[in-house]
Specification:
Layout lengths: L13 H4 L17 H17 L3 H24 L1
Length: 79
């Protein structure tokens, strides 16, 4: 008798066993004037700070761009 085909084990995707994301609940006292707008501005500032590159990242990108330009120029001069 021939050996029967055995399927390979497939790992379970991480989303099956990963814990669910917990949505933070914000409590804003709407009886205090300006509390909502201050909270929104703070959240916007935090989001902007998280997505904007730091000075070091900008400097590193400028150095990388200059290195690519030098490499392209040296390749062009060797043609």
């Amino acid at each position: 008798m021939r050996n029967a085909w055995q399927p390979a084990e497939v790992p379970i995707p991480t989303y099956v066993s990963a814990p669910k994301a917990i949505v933070p609940k914000r409590v804003i006292d709407l009886t205090t004037p300006g509390a909502w707008s201050e909270e929104q501005e703070r959240l916007e500032r935090e989001a902007l700070a998280a997505t904007s590159p730091s000075r070091n990242e900008i400097f590193d990108q400028q150095l990388a761009d200059e290195a690519v330009q030098r490499l392209n120029q040296s390749r062009a001069s060797n043609e």
